[in-house]
Amino acid sequence: MISPNNQIVFENVSKFYGEILGVNRVNLSLPPGVTSLVGPNGSGKTTLMNLMTGLVQPTQGKVSVLGLTPDQPEELFRYIGYCAQFDSFPKGVTGYEFINSFLRLRGLSSQDANRLTWEAIERVGMTEAARRKVAGYSKGMRQRMRLAQALAHHPTVLVLDEPLNGLDPMARSESIALFEALGKQGMHVIVSSHVLHEVDKISDQVVLMSFGYVVAEGQISGVRSEVKEHPMQILVRCSRPSMLASRLFAQDHVVEAKLHTDGAGLLVRTHDADSFYKLLSQIVQDKEDDFKLEAVAPADDDVNSVYQYLIGSGGGTV
Q1: What one-character DSSP code corresponds to residue 136?
Q2: Contact 34/207 with Cβ under 8 angstroms?
Q3: Residues in Cβ contact with 179 at an 8 Å cutoff, skipping those fewer than 6 apart
Q4: Which of 104, 159, 244, 258 is the most buried (most CB within 10 A)?
Q5: What are the residue boundaries of the structural domains of the chain, listed by start?
Q6: Does the 8-225 domain belong in CATH 1.10.150.120?
Q7: Which among 36, 91, 73, 48 is positioned nearest to 205, based on CA atoms?
Q8: Helix %, strand %, coil % for the chain, to 5?
Q9: Which pTM value belongs to this model?
Q10: Helix (H, G, I), strand (E, B) or coil at 166
Q11: 231-299 belongs to which CATH class?
């Protein structure tokens, strides 16, 4: 059984900015591992992260992080690393200076700060660029250096607001592997994202948010089971979309097959994606149909589609 002092707990937490709703009546208990907060911009993800790091205080309710409350900032920030979404650095600093100065401010000796700085930089694959000025970095390089700063003091809780933005495919893959490894070591890794397939790869549990409310939470399999009750959308680009549509309408699992506006494909909605792909494979292999398949792609890879299933809207901003 997980100790309450090893969890991040929200008890009936609401946060208002004047009359603007940030989050409302949130009750969560997040165990160690990788937790993803998913939702469109304005859904409350950043507010929830700012609450757990003590950067804002709840209007009502209570937040507890590893048994500590956000009104204990000196103690709390020994355990928290936060990589916010804001891409800003002091003017003229190198990557090394950015991290090293942060560690020195924490009271570390020059020797310890230097050791931890290089350790964090190496961990995110930025050793070669460490002595260059941050102003000359690409967006992805700046993102990785901010991640290194959040990791440098070996936190127990790592809070990352859209940490994969701006990263090239290789850096994204390396970052995902790092998050997974940290979660398996028993850390809390809280990641915000708006892309569903990224959540699948890195999460032990997921929290879906919309308009400041938690609309679903739990392990990926549990949240996915809610989604699977609804038709999956698949885009197909092909040479004979009308013929494909006529074949599909004979299948019980197909809810809808809609022609593209350019007449070169279909948007298919099905309750059984496996059966659809099997049928499509048979059609492609049938030479009598003279059917040429150009592309097939699921249209439900972003979390906004999940909101359409769960709450009947695409999410939005508050």
Answers
A1: G
A2: no
A3: 34, 160, 163, 189, 191, 202
A4: 159
A5: 8-225, 231-299
A6: no
A7: 36
A8: 40, 30, 35
A9: 0.72
A10: coil
A11: alpha beta
